[in-house]
Amino acid sequence: MQHFILGIESSCDDTSAAIIADDVILSNVTAGQEVHRNFGGVVPELASRAHQQNIIPVIDTAIQKANIGKNQLSAIAFTRGPGLLGSLLVGTSFAKAFSLGLNIPLIEVDHLQAHILSHFIRNTDRTNPVPSFPFLCLTVSGGHTQFVWLRDYFDMEIIGQTIDDAAGEAFDKAAKIMGLPYPGGPMIDKLAQDGDPKRFTFSKPNIPGLNFSFSGLKTSFLYFLRDELKKDPGFIEKNKHDLCASIQATIVDMLMSKLKIAINDTGVHPRVSTRGKLPDVAIAGGVSANSGLRKALEQARDNYGWNIFIPPLQYSTDNAAMIAIAGYFKFLKGDFSDQAAIPYARSKTM
Known about the structure:
The protein is an alpha/beta fold and 350 residues long. It contains 10 helices and 10 strands.
């Protein structure tokens, strides 16, 4: 018997709904919010209002594209957190009401865990490979940068993380300093395609172990541009492509350097070990859409023989398919939520 799970994602500024049949994706619909471009970033109040406008048509479209009726749904999975509370409340409230109306289970999902579990979404032909447990995942987004060791779908342990800012935040801050439009990270990626990644160098912190730090890089980039603009007010515009390529290459290099250490450590560490073998390696989160990082991972796969799993672009940024697949695995365990569930803004410990 097939289980149809509706996933609802509303943690930030994307309203998304998806339907899966067991672990096979049937539909994944997302509505963005262009209004935030005028403000250079997400405005929480405007985001929650847009979610209220979008959530019903998005869910209706997802059900229609899946070619099923709402009464065929087995459960409703929703993002409980982390994220913007106003945005999360819209998705949570709708999920509760819909589950009551249909008299089916309600399943709460952690947004970060869902990003990782997106690797287990199957295509209709079920030919796409998935990681084998245990495996290592580098989760990189605007709010998080961390290494997660997975022993099972929900047996996750953070073994390294940023001690200050996230990699995605570094991208966005660098874009803002250069006066680039929102969203900054994708814009840097786009402009970097025509730039020289070795043109400029920026300081990299020396953080021991598997932890990261990006605050110093942001400061270095800011002071560098401040000094250059004193000499030439048109410096940024004249060197925009090279600046984007150089800052992107610096961030990617910081991530890849730590990833090499993490892969070696998890192969031999007694607490997290694959008994001397290199683990499967996955990447997740919004920054996994960055073309520079994807190319670096593909090159490392060729050079070192790493077994790399890079999510399709539609599962890199916030989407409901990842919520649905996480909900499916919880459904199999009978791990259901109740009507008392309230959203949380900050991440819980894995």
